[in-house]
Task: structure prediction
Amino acid sequence: MKLYACPKDENNSEREYENMDDKKTGFTSKLGFVFAAAGSAVGLGNIWRFPYLAAKYGGGIFLLVYIVLAVTFGFSLMVTEIAIGRKTGKSAVKAFASLDRRFSFIGYIASAVPIIIFPYYCVIGGWVIKYLTIYFTGQGAEAAADGYFDGFISSPVSPIVFTCIFIFLTAVVVLMGVQKGIEKVSTVMMPVLVLLSIGIAVYSLTIDGAWEGFIYYIKPNFSDFSIKTVVAAMGQLFYSMSLAMGIMITYGSYMRREDNLEGSVRQIEIFDTAVAFFSGMMIIPAVYAFSGGDKDALNQGAGLMFVTLPKVFDTMYGGKLVAAVFFVLVLLAALTSSISLMETIVSIFSDKLKVKRWVICVCVMLISAEVAVPSSLGYGIWSDVKLLGRSILDFFDFISNNIMMPITALLTCIFVAFVIKPKTIEDEVERTENFRSKKLYRIMISFVCPVFLVVILISSVIGYV
Ligand code: TRP
Result:
């Protein structure tokens, strides 16, 4: 989900500053910035992706690894990106270029990530629309039946139609430039989504057998630990916090110089992690309750939320209504993220090509729709097609989160540690207040992060984990 700020073009700094001025209305307070950046971070990544990874990679141990990575790794990277953005006042490619010409390529690699994510994000967005229509047409009971979700995603036409609707909705907003309206609506809806998730999570716990699942979710079992847990948690961290793809640099460029950068990063992280945590709490205990902790149920991957939640709603008094409201809010969170993803892609191309913006919008819409088709069919008639042992959607997810984002993050660390030096970032953070975690930051960015990222990359590449 994204609020207020939208990624700007790289080459037109005048427009960039113009944008900054009119964005000022959004960021007249520190909280405004925190909400906007947290809004960008919160989306399907938290609600759909986090729970299925946590279920698959050992529950409590995944949660623990994720939180440790968030406060060390995620913190350092987010501080770096926001500081680079605020210092240069530019978005990714130009920001790197203005710090050191030779390194603008990092900005280009970062910008490629949204291009890979966008089409498959829309496939999941399509699933959300499908579930929304289910509850609006009163078919909730059918959706709770075993096999319903598989039947839906494996059918050749229906999921593609919903994906196209989702892409179309996104494109209409981007084309009409009405992001701000949508973003205002979602600022109000976001807290409602969080409260509703907490409510559903608490209800989930009351279902027979759910408690055991809750224990699985929060109590780390160290025998479940493996490098796969770390790789998955790291990819999720990048994805969920919109790191290593230039987005936070853009946000930083909107941030006021007098605001506390370190404190803002902490708040964004807490918000993003809390939403993910409650989404997990809403889904994982329920999986246990309905399956008795069966490993296959926990391992089912991308469909977990869509299989489990209808069952929860089915047992709940007034569940159909709660479900309808819930899916509207999730759709909104998903749309604001996809709008921001598409906006990024459109601005990359409108910088490079001298073509009208609406033409680019239409092209991005059509091409993404086409690229999304294989991701969708990969769960149905093309389920035999395996890329690196994965379904097509999982393959795109893997390439972006586990290969490209670690590469971007690694290059960013090397750039900070050896080219501009950590002090440049630290000084930017210290414009206002003391950088309380300065020591941690320096060690992380110069040693731990790069070494760790190399290990992650190697294990991703070798093991196709
Ligand atoms: N962080 C978003 C989420 O959790 C997904 C996302 C990834 C995103 N990259 C982005 C959103 C870029 C906006 C812009 O769903």
Remarks:
- The pocket of tryptophan is lined by residues 2, 40-41, 43-46, 114, 117, 239-240, 242, 245, 247, 337, 340-341 (CB under 6 Å).
- The mean pLDDT is 88.
- The radius of gyration is 21 Å.
- The CA atoms of residues 403 and 457 lie 6 Å apart.
